[in-house]
Amino acid sequence: FAREKSGDLPRALLEEGPRTHTYEVGDVVYWPPGPHVAVFYRQDGRAVTAGLIRLGAVDAGVDAFAPSSSVRATIELAT
């Protein structure tokens, strides 16, 4: 859909968080049934029918995830 960059996780996460069918630019989400994580870099106004679990957000530089870029990212739990 040219709106997110996604990648595989080494294992599935617990699906305890509330699911949403909408997203904001910069959202970092778990995409059940996984094990996939995605970062949204563009809003297209379409709902995500499978539902997402929001893990957090990119504070700045979300354009690094745009389609023309190749990015390697590490996501860590903030304390």
Structure commentary:
- It is a single chain.
- The protein is mostly beta strands.
- 0% of the residues lie in helices and 29% in strands.
- The protein contains no helices and five strands.
- Strands 1-4-3-5-2 form a five-stranded antiparallel β-sheet, with no helix packed on it.
- A hairpin with a 4-residue loop joins strand 3 (27-31) and strand 4.
- It is globular and about 30 Å long.
- The protein starts with a strand and ends in a 22-residue tail after the last strand.
- The model has no long low-confidence stretch (mean pLDDT 88).
Write a concise keyword list for the protein shown above:
79 residues, mainly beta, five-stranded antiparallel β-sheet
Structural topology:
Layout: E1 4-8, E2 19-20, E3 27-31, E4 36-40, E5 52-57
Antiparallel strand pairs: 1-4, 2-5, 3-4, 3-5
Rg for CA atoms: 12 Å
Q: Could you name the ranges where pLDDT drops below 50 across 5 or more consecutive residues? A: none
Number of helices: 0
The oligomerization state is single chain
Label the structural class: mainly beta
How widely separated are the two ends?
33 Å
Tell me the overall shape: globular
Strand coverage percent = 25-35%
* Largest sheet: spatial strand order: 1-4-3-5-2
